[in-house]
Specification:
CATH superfamily: Glutaredoxin
Oligomer: single chain
Number of helices: 9
Strand content: 5-15%
Largest sheet: 5 strands, mixed
Structural class: alpha/beta
Order of helices and strands: EHEHHHHHHHEEEHEE
CATH topology: Glutaredoxin
CATH class: Alpha Beta
Shape: globular
CATH architecture: 3-Layer(aba) Sandwich
Distance between the termini: 33 Å
Helix content: 40-55%
Length: about 240
């Protein structure tokens, strides 16, 4: 951590649509923040559903997966997806749930943890989000992960190390355990210098307010409080996205 910068930690899962939308909203806020050069961002791993098999034998559509996980009928799930697609479009993103391939996100998290050591954490998040929600890429497939990782400058050896070395799995698991210790049960979740927190894909103006408020006193003692909003959009570990 750079001691001269205000740190923003973002707990996120690449299979969470609101995490991608929240990323765009936060980026928009940061562009209008006078002290953006003094902000350090760290992406933290979170898994909404670690029970998804890492090796998928039978492909499940996202519609069927969400219907089974949330106990909803297919029509209601499709209506929910339509709302998310509309929200994504407003943020400048193009979501396509019809081509999305269900995958356990832990391999992507391992690579993200490796990428963070090369200051490529944000780039890794971006390429995996786009691959999952827009391009319908199979993030359970090692060859696909290698192709995507090469787009941000990681080599085949880098990806192999990320997927084989225990330390990168440990880093991901440590982030997940830390989230539990902090009481974080839905993502995205933004923590500003361990002083304030913002839950969900809030509007850009809410993130800007949080940046200003946290920057004003980021050198004070640790501990954070949640900055509430009526516009929360996040996904929790029980499969509830609202």
């Amino acid at each position: 951590m750079n001691q001269n910068k205000m740190k923003v930690e973002i707990w996120s899962d690449i299979m969470c649509p609101f995490c991608y939308i929240g990323k765009r909203h936060f980026e928009a806020a940061l562009e209008h923040f006078d002290h953006k050069k003094d902000v350090e961002i760290e992406w933290k791993s979170f898994q909404l559903d670690p029970t998804i098999p890492e090796e998928v034998k039978i492909r499940t559509t996202m519609t069927d997966y969400m219907a089974n996980r949330k106990g909803m009928n297919v029509d209601d799930v499709q209506a929910m997806f339509e709302n998310v697609v509309s929200m994504a479009k407003d943020a400048g993103l193009d979501f396509d749930f019809d081509i999305q391939l269900l995958a356990n996100s832990i391999k992507a998290h391992r690579i993200i943890q490796f990428a963070k050591e090369k200051n490529l954490g944000d780039q890794a998040e971006e390429v995996f989000f786009k691959a999952y929600f827009t391009e319908g890429k199979d993030l359970a497939d090692d060859a696909t992960l290698l192709e995507l990782s090469s787009n941000i400058g990681l080599s085949q050896d880098d990806v192999n190390n990320a997927l084989s070395q225990d330390e990168f799995l440990k880093y991901a698991k440590d982030d997940i355990a830390e989230a539990q210790d902090l009481g974080i049960d839905s993502v995205p979740f933004f923590v500003f210098n361990r002083k304030f927190a913002v839950k969900g894909a809030q509007p850009a103006h809410h993130f800007l307010d949080a940046l200003k408020q946290s920057y004003a006193d980021y050198s004070k003692e640790s501990g954070f409080k949640t900055l509430d909003s009526n516009d929360t959009a996040s996904c929790d570990v029980d499969g509830k996205c609202d």
